[in-house]
Amino acid sequence: MNAMARHVEGMLRLQKMGSVTFDYGNNIRTFAFQQGVKDAYDFPGFVPAYIRPLFAKARAVPLGGALGDPADIAVTDDLVLEMFRRTAS
Questions:
Q1: What is the pLDDT of residue 74?
Q2: Which of 17, 25, 32, 60 is most deeply packed, by most CB within 10 A?
Q3: Cβ–Cβ contacts within 10 Å for residue 76, how many?
């Protein structure tokens, strides 16, 4: 837990120096906060910062639900192809 807090503190320092900084869903910010890093949430998670805006613009398709069943993957593939046809015209 202490190592995660130190890691987030380092990420915060890099952010203050101009680096793009984000958490990739490993909950490191929460663990750091629990260890006393009060500004642990001063940088975003990857999905809210970068992926969600793509969903809002119909530029990305969530694939998590399609993993496993080939029929689901085919439906997702067809939808992506249709979306690209619509945006290309």
A1: 82
A2: 32
A3: 16
Distance separating alpha carbons of residues 59 and 45, to the nearest angstrom: 19
Half-sphere exposure of 61 toward its Cβ, with a 13 Å CA cutoff?
17
| Exposure of 22 in the CB half-sphere (CA atoms within 13 A) | 11
Q: Which two tokens stand for residue 6?
A: 């130190």
Report which residue type is found at 38. Answer: K
- pTM > 0.85: yes or no: no
Chain segment 33-53, per-residue pLDDT in tens: 999 999 999 999 988 888 877
